[in-house]
Specification:
The structure is a homodimer of 467-residue chains. Chain A has 467 residues and is an alpha+beta fold. Helices cover 34% and strands 20% of the residues of chain A. In chain A, strand 5 (95-98) and strand 6 form a beta hairpin. The longest helix of chain A is centred in the last third of the chain and has 20 residues, at 386-405. The model of chain A has no long low-confidence stretch (mean pLDDT 94). Chains A and B meet through strand 9, helix 7, strand 11, helix 10 and helix 15 of A and strand 9, helix 7, strand 11, helix 10 and helix 15 of B.
Chain lengths: 467, 467
């Protein structure tokens, strides 16, 4: 056993320093692609332990890869260079809520959905709602700056963070931001660290913004016989003075997949459906619902469904949540992307996806947060089929190029991680990428914190196939 | 004339390179404290000129101080180390609005209020509304991350920026972020630069987020016979499920000052008033107004005024805007602070201000964005009175300490600039400040971009008096 691993046991109880192959294997993957075996897994439970681990790792130049629940879709927690996986999930989950300040301070291990649950007891809400909220930790959400359907109206994780407690790559414990809604005291380290995918610091605590919970919600489902009409309808709605909380999109392949998986009564003959959630006061919802029905009729909707009960509405949202598992049944491998374009470019982006589908003879389905241009094109394939996976690689690269051509970005909410790193320069240019790297290097001179993520390594290419 | 100034004229027309004492003097101050004469003022009109100026300055190690309209309350544009003032105000003001994307791309010289005006023509709004919006440039707002009354509901400038075009201290032109609502492609350089007070890059363009304009607004004024009651009423409202667009506070001294300056019918016998603006659909406003009236009665309001007309409402908001000029009449010198505390701590902070008032025998008035804990305590004094100014210095220092004791921050929206720099370590600690400085140094190795701001210089102290 490496000497430094023995040293770890000096400040973390042996029971939380995992070295067996079985243990290490269960930390070798996340919800994305690829497997990498760490040398050791350290289950930390307090900030001093994190500080001690990082000081040792920095001294011995050992890579450290922080990890929450491992639900990441871009490889954030993968120990691509071996070394240490820092498991934050065993940290005592604490939620310290201050209703009169509309703030909450949480431990990194808290499941995101539980923050909202705690807030609701006081008539408040924690707005970010990534689809993984029930299994993902807030620490992971912060590292990746997670989005979610409500991002349309309420913004993403970063928009709700007031302050952080973090451990630097050199093991120093610092506070960033604070507990106030407004704070312009110096350079914004809080928003710098949120979304840095664990490359700048390890988050050991966070103070989040809460807001009054809207008293009522109204769900509407609209079906279209053309994808382009759905796209137009979304733009039309958002320029009509109405800002829905959610505006989710599903194409025909997704609708069919869900209906085959768990029938929810979705219109299988529709080219696309939009599921909308309005929130606010009941009086307002009535008015806005009427306006949206008018708009959708004008835009040539085939069907407008207003659920008759909460159960019926819940069923629609459940169907939306079932898209991922449902399409996973179609083929063994699912390559999920989240290239994002300006709202008005959604129809064009859908056209480009259609062309890729034909050009590379691949199964590509699309769903997601169309209201903010954040679609999730998924390529359904079979990783054992080397030849097909090579076509997937080419299609993914062209998909990114298409998004950039349309004024979009590589990733709307999943992050860069390992898979998109090779394409960073494509979007940022050499100097832009260098300016990012300077920050990383100034904080982590030995490059020990989550190496192999965000920043492309020399000659790195997207490789999904294994010869 | 310095050789480098001659060189400037090689790439900026001579007519825009100002060297006369008169010209330089008019760029030697802003809306805060202190006067510093630059060696030269360069009025840039395109990004290539900015790039050329910075390349020269970086080579010759000449300080460069970017400046918009000079309305800064913390000394952001002051050329404290001489060198170049980079006047961005003459840049051609362009506003490129894309209603279907709910985005707008603007030049740094555009007046913030004009962005909102352009948006309103499409039923949209640009939410940030600093009180200086009609005279301040968006470039300055971005550099300082300006707030404003609507920050309560809609957040500050940073929350509405999607992407930037900037010139680095070494003269490289880069794009950060983009045009999409969601973007997690790498480290967030956009939000890093917004609020960095011109120390990291010169902003030459920005893409901002627009939102649907609320169809209606409702103003309510509430008077209290005790400041503490007003504070309680604010917390009560915000935990009742209502999020007003604005919740502004004025203490008795401000009310009296305004009534002596431009009578608006404010209750001069009240200890404090809150002016609230609700926005949304008319139906909702009726309901929310009723709820707020109930809350205010429960909290012991002396008077609740519902304006009978738009004119009457406008008169109240005009009165709020008159506070600054009105209190400036009381004494020749006004030291404006914006220390910010968690919402629930406003009454405690008001008590601390009262103690300081007595302890140092000073005129201290308070008003501001109480809804988000961002008060503006103003010390009214006479800078010719050396002895008084020394008491002001001590009071300001204790005011900052009080804010920090209550879990607050040095600055909510005015920025650190020159005046608050000496107190940075008090809030951030040595390591926290060092981590900020590392970023600055990695981007600006020669320290030419806006030196003397944000980061304290060796042994720097707050000095308001001149012996």
């Amino acid at each position: 056993m490496e000497k430094w691993i023995e040293e770890l046991k000096g400040f973390v109880p042996e029971s939380r320093v995992l070295t067996s192959v079985a243990d290490r294997h269960s930390y070798s993957f996340d919800a994305s692609f690829g497997e990498h075996l760490p040398d050791v897994v350290v289950q930390v439970k307090e900030k001093q332990e994190v500080s001690d681990v990082l000081k040792l790792a920095n001294r011995c130049k050992i890579p450290v890869h922080p990890r929450g629940s491992g639900t990441c879709l871009s490889g954030g927690p993968l120990p691509v260079h071996g070394g240490i996986v820092l498991d934050m999930s065993q940290w005592p989950a604490s939620i310290d809520l201050r209703p009169r300040d509309l703030t909450v301070t949480v431990a990194p291990s808290v499941l995101t959905a539980n923050i909202n649950k705690a807030a609701e007891e006081h008539g408040l809400m924690y707005a970010p709602d990534p689809s993984s909220a029930h299994v993902a930790t807030i620490g992971g959400n912060l590292a990746e700056n997670s989005g979610g359907p409500r991002g349309l109206k309420y913004g993403v994780t970063k928009d709700h963070v007031l302050g952080l407690e973090v451990v630097t790559p050199e093991g120093e414990i610092i506070q960033t931001g604070g507990q106030t809604i407004k704070n312009v005291t110096g350079i914004d380290l809080t928003k710098l660290i949120v979304g840095s995918e664990g490359t700048l610091a390890v988050i050991v605590g966070a103070t989040l913004k809460l807001m009054p919970k809207p008293p009522a919600v109204q769900t509407i489902m609209v079906a279209f016989d053309e994808v382009r009409k759905a796209g137009e309808a979304i733009s039309q709605t958002l320029t009509s003075g109405i800002l829905p909380a959610k505006m989710e999109f599903m194409d025909q392949a997704c609708i069919t997949a869900v209906e085959n998986f768990q029938p929810a009564g979705l219109p299988v003959d529709a080219a696309a459906v939009i599921i909308i959630e309005l929130d606010g006061h009941p009086e307002t919802l009535g008015v806005e619902r009427g306006l949206i029905e008018e708009i959708m009729q004008d835009m040539g909707a085939e069907e407008i469904l207003i659920p008759k009960s909460e159960e019926e509405a819940a069923k629609l949202w459940h169907a939306r949540k079932q898209v991922s598992p449902a399409i996973a049944k179609i083929k063994p491998t699912k390559v999920s992307e989240d290239a994002t374009v300006p709202r008005s470019k959604i129809p064009d982006f859908m056209d480009r996806l259609q062309l890729l589908k034909e050009k590379y003879d691949l199964e590509i389905v699309a769903f997601g947060h169309a209201g903010d241009g954040n679609l999730h094109p998924n390529i359904l394939c079979d990783k054992r089929d080397v030849e097909e996976m090579k076509r997937v690689e080419m299609a993914v690269e062209e998909m990114f190029q298409a998004a950039l051509d349309l004024g979009g970005t590589l990733s709307g909410e999943h992050g860069i991680g390992t898979m998109k790193a090779p394409f960073m320069e494509l979007e940022l240019g050499e100097v832009g990428l260098d300016m990012m790297k300077r920050i990383k290097d100034s904080w982590d001179p030995n490059g020990i914190l989550n190496p192999g993520k965000v920043f492309p390594e020399k000659g790195q290419k997207l490789v999904l196939h294994h010869e």
